[in-house]
Batch of 2 targets.
Target 1
Amino acid sequence: MDFEILQPGLEVINHIAALKVSLRSARLAQQKIALVPTMGALHSGHVSLVKKAQELADIVVCSIFVNPTQFTDPKDLEKYPRPLEHDIRMLEHAGCDFVFMPSVTEMYPEPENWHIDLGPAEFLLEGEFRKGHYQGVTQIVKKLFDAVNPDLAFFGQKDYQQVLMIKNMVNYFHLPVELVSCPIIREEDGLAMSSRNIHLTGEERIQALVLSRSLYYIRDHFGETKIAELLENARKLVRGTPGVELDYLTIADGDTLLPVDEESGKSGLVALIAAKVGETRLIDNIILN
Ligand code: AMP
């Protein structure tokens, strides 16, 4: 006799109070709850986080919220893609349990001044180019943690500095949540998947490959070529690509994000890049040792 396997299905929730009610029975049953925070326009990178969360937890909540307080450029916020139906279908297909899609007023009923000490790395790299970005990021992640109270939360290494900043925020508040950093998912040709890739024209899409190529160059010659020379060559590669404007390309200590030199002989290094391709700003990174 055949039994039909019933899929529990994805529940879409817009309010914090409703979310807490929905998660109550899971919590009472001592099930592990995972949170995957996103800004939507989901791709396989996001789905990989959901899949990892399913491996390590019983219930997976994915949040979709384009957080205004982390945008430094109002135009970037305005044009951020919001294909909600597509996102819901992707999460359904991935077997996610809950999608939390609050409104801006749900998350920010009134204006809030948020400022916490995230350590000196807040002001480096992305922090230098996007002033206040990590205050906004940690503000919304703290609010999502308060709403979901997750046992585990999943983030992509794609936003390397973001993972560090969230770790610092978790330590700052002594939050009982385990952070899991997941590998970067790339297109076949190496381009790191990003919701912003949708803005690239055909030509820019090809030019954007120089980000991953410069990182692969560094990875492939790391240890045999001096760091200064590696950076010089990789930067030349990027600057020589029409339509690409380099913000930074650095080899840094993976914990402090400070640039390293030959003498430091440190392990745990990461190469990080940010560049504008046409009007679209992209970031990428690779762990070196
Ligand atoms: P976002 O929607 O861009 O805020 O990203 C939500 C989460 O997905 C963040 O933790 C990102 O680091 C992660 N993420 C974004 N792109 C990728 C990718 N290509 N591979 C793995 N994780 C990613």
Target 2
Amino acid sequence: MTTKPRIIQVGSLAGSPSANQTLADRYDVVELWKFPDRKAALAEHGKGITAIVTSANFGANAELINALPDLKAICSWGVGYETIDVAAAQARGVQVSNTPDVLTDCVADLAWGLLIAAARRMGQGERFVRSGQWGQIHGSIPLGMRVSGKKLGIVGLGRIGDAIAKRGAGFDMQVRYHNRRKRDDVAYGYEASLVELARWADFLIVATVGGAGTRHLVNQEVLEALGPKGIVVNIARGPVIDETALVAALEAGKLGWAALDVFEHEPKVPQALLGSDQAVLLPHIGSATLETRQDMEDLMLENLRAFFETGRVVTPVE
Ligand code: 8YV
């Protein structure tokens, strides 16, 4: 009888087609989220564990990493890894992998869906029809805003930002971006100042990484520079936008609309946004298609398999 390798799974990957089941079939899984006392569970089951499976939702902090003396790999389901303490992992020689590329198109598609939904009042229109108001009263919802031909600013021109920018060509848009550094391999205009990018743009799509380095990057000044007709879209991480400043700018008429897939304190959404027709709100579904979630699952499992068979994960984080 061959014994299955033991792993720790930090949280349930219920948003993946079959990850929980496949992990349980292939590995001897310590399901950490089921233990009421995490510290005690790690003390009891941690020895001999060489791999952790997690996601950005659950992360892997230094306390977890350092509670596992034999840890060698952390395999995350998803591209973002700001909740994994990569420095603590690397200090211990622990490899960290994520699932890049496979979700790029779906997240970029959703960014455009959000932008069009806000500009064309799609949520408001849907609520109007569903509530039976159409045909029962005169008038309609307020006029929307043309999308094609406008100026698009992208915050963070990485893989996903790039895919969003490419789609801009199909809408005859001028595209500029803000990054820490100008990229030499693209023709889009670069704005070293995010405030200047927002001032220039009709629409601002946030596609940067999360974490301490980008927290509240999109602040009051940026939102007000985007202005009363501007639309901000966020498919990145909630904390990149100062949510309090966002609500204040919307309420004061200093920002036009917000179309958000991510929030500062998920799954909590500010009451002011819930009641606002100037907001389009989605429950963090950028990657949530069957095809993409399957691809993420396969890549996470491939990293784990490769680690156990070769000692190396296949898509390590940079
Ligand atoms: C997932 C994501 O929903 O990949 C990411 O970084 O935000 C999404 O694809 C997330 O990883 C779940 O925690």
